[in-house]
C-alpha cells in the first residue's frame, strides 16, 4: 500500500495479517480468557496462533466440549479424540485441570490423562464422574505431589500401601466418593497445610480430624461420630444431615473451636449435639458472628434448648438466620413442656444482651408459641438490630392467621429504635 505525503512519496507496508504480528504474551493473554473450545478454534486464525492453546496452563473439559450435532459420531469417540490431541499436543506445565464427564459412560483415556497430569505439575485438579459409574483412581494419581487443590466427585479411592498423602494440599473436596474412614483420616493428617475441607459422603465409622491449619470444614452426610481435634484456626463450620443416631456433648464439641466465626447446623446435627444441653456453654463462642440453623423444629424440646443455648453463648453474634420446620406434633404434653421451657429460658436471658446483633432472618413462621417467644426475645435483647425479616411458612396457615401473627409482632418491645421488622403477609 502506497501512502502519499505532499510531493514526496513514502512507502509504508501494512502487515496483511495483523493477528500474526501480535506479541506472544498478548496472544497468550487473549487465549487464556477464552473457553477451551473457543481457544482451540483460534488455531485457524494464523500460523502463530495455531498451537497457542497447547501452552495453556489451565484447561476445563466438560460435556459441552465434546457434544456434537453429528449423530454418527458418538460422544465417547469424540471424547477419545479430544484426549488424544490433548495428550500429544500440549506442551509445558498444566497447573489447573477440570474434567466434568456427566453422562459419558466409557472413558478409555482417563488413566492416561491422570498419568499425563501427574507428570506436568498439576496443582489444582477437579474430577467429576457419573453417579452410577464410580471411577477408580489409577496409581499415577497418587504421584501428583504438587497438588494443592483437589476436588473429587464420584470416585473410588484405593491408595497403594506406600502412599503418605499430599503434603502441599491446601483445599480438599470429596463428594460421594468411596473411601475408607482409615485412609480419609490418614489423608487429612498427612496434609499439614490443609485449610479447606468439604466432605459429602456417608461414613460408617468414627472419624477423627487433626488439621492445625484448617479454616473451613463443611460436612454433609451420615456418620456415627466425628471429632475435630487440634483445629485452633477453624473459622467456618457446617454440619448437615448427621443421621446415624449418635449423640455428642455440645459443650465439649464446640469448646474445641476458639476461632469459630460462622456456624451452620440443621435439625439432624442439632439433635446430634443435643445429648446434654446446658443453659450456657462454659466456654462462650466469643468469635461467632453468623449463626445459620436450617430445618429446625422449635416445637421439639431438645432442638429449642440447643438453639437458645447457642444464642445465649454467642455474645458477639451479628447475623442470625433460622429456617423453621413445623413437625406438627400436636402433643399436649410436649406443648406443656415447651411452654415451661420457654418461660424458664426467657428468665435465663435476663442478664444477656446481644449488643452486636444487626440482622435476623426467620423463615417458616406459623405462629407457634416458641416461635413468637423467640421473636420477642431477639427484639428485646438486640439494641443494635437493624433488620428482622420474617417469612411465614408456605401453606400452613391462612391470611387471617398471618395478619394475627403480624399484629402480635407489632406489640413486641424493641431494644433498637432503628430496628426494621419486615413480615411478608402475602
TrEMBL record:
It holds the Pfam family F-box. Residues 16-69 form the F-box domain. The gene is LOC104247628. This is F-box/FBD/LRR-repeat protein At1g13570-like. The lineage of its organism: Eukaryota, Viridiplantae, Streptophyta, Embryophyta, Tracheophyta. SUPFAM superfamilies: F-box domain, RNI-like. It comes from Nicotiana sylvestris (Wood tobacco).
Amino acid at each position: 500500500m502506497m501512502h502519499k505525503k505532499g510531493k514526496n512519496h513514502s512507502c509504508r507496508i501494512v502487515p496483511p495479517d495483523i493477528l500474526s504480528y501480535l506479541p506472544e504474551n498478548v496472544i497468550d493473554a487473549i487465549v487464556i480468557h477464552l473457553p477451551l473450545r473457543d481457544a482451540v478454534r483460534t488455531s485457524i486464525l494464523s500460523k502463530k496462533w495455531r498451537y497457542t492453546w497447547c501452552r495453556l496452563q489451565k484447561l476445563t473439559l466438560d460435556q459441552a466440549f465434546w457434544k456434537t450435532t453429528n449423530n454418527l459420531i458418538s460422544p465417547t469417540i469424540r471424547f477419545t479424540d479430544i484426549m488424544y490431541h490433548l495428550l500429544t499436543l500440549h506442551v509445558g506445565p498444566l497447573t489447573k485441570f477440570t474434567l466434568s464427564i456427566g453422562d459419558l459412560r466409557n472413558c478409555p483415556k482417563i488413566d492416561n490423562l491422570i498419568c499425563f497430569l501427574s507428570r506436568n505439575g498439576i496443582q489444582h485438579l477437579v474430577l467429576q464422574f457419573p453417579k452410577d459409574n464410580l471411577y477408580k483412581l489409577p496409581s499415577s494419581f497418587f504421584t501428583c505431589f504438587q497438588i494443592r487443590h483437589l476436588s473429587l466427585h464420584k470416585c473410588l479411592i484405593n491408595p497403594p500401601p506406600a502412599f503418605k498423602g499430599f503434603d502441599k494440599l491446601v483445599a480438599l473436596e470429596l463428594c460421594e466418593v468411596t473411601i475408607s474412614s482409615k485412609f480419609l483420616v490418614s489423608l487429612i493428617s498427612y496434609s499439614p497445610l490443609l485449610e479447606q475441607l468439604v466432605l459429602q459422603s456417608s461414613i460408617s465409622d468414627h472419624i477423627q480430624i487433626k488439621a492445625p491449619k484448617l479454616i473451613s470444614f463443611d460436612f454433609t452426610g451420615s456418620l456415627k461420630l466425628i471429632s475435630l481435634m487440634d483445629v485452633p484456626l477453624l473459622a467456618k463450620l457446617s454440619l448437615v444431615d448427621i443421621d446415624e443416631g449418635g449423640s455428642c456433648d455440645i459443650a465439649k464439641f464446640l469448646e474445641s473451636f476458639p476461632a469459630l466465626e460462622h456456624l451452620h447446623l440443621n435439625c439432624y446435627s442439632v439433635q446430634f449435639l443435643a445429648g446434654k444441653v446446658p443453659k450456657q456453654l462454659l466456654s462462650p463462642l466469643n468469635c461467632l458472628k453468623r449463626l445459620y440453623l436450617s430445618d429446625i423444629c422449635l416445637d421439639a424440646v431438645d432442638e429449642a434448648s440447643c438453639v437458645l443455648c447457642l444464642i445465649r453463648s454467642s455474645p458477639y453474634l451479628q447475623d442470625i438466620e433460622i429456617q423453621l420446620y413445623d413437625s406438627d406434633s400436636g402433643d399436649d404434653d410436649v406443648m406443656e413442656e415447651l411452654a415451661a421451657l420457654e418461660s424458664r429460658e426467657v428468665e435465663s436471658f435476663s442478664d444477656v444482651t446481644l449488643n452486636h446483633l444487626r440482622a435476623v432472618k426467620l423463615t417458616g413462621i406459623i405462629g407457634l408459641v416458641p416461635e413468637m417467644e423467640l421473636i420477642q426475645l431477639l427484639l428485646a435483647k438486640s439494641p443494635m438490630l437493624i433488620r428482622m425479616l420474617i417469612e411465614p411458612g408456605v401453606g400452613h396457615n391462612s391470611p387471617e392467621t398471618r395478619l394475627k401473627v403480624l399484629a402480635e409482632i407489632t406489640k413486641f418491645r424493641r431494644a433498637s429504635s432503628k430496628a426494621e421488622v419486615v413480615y411478608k403477609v402475602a
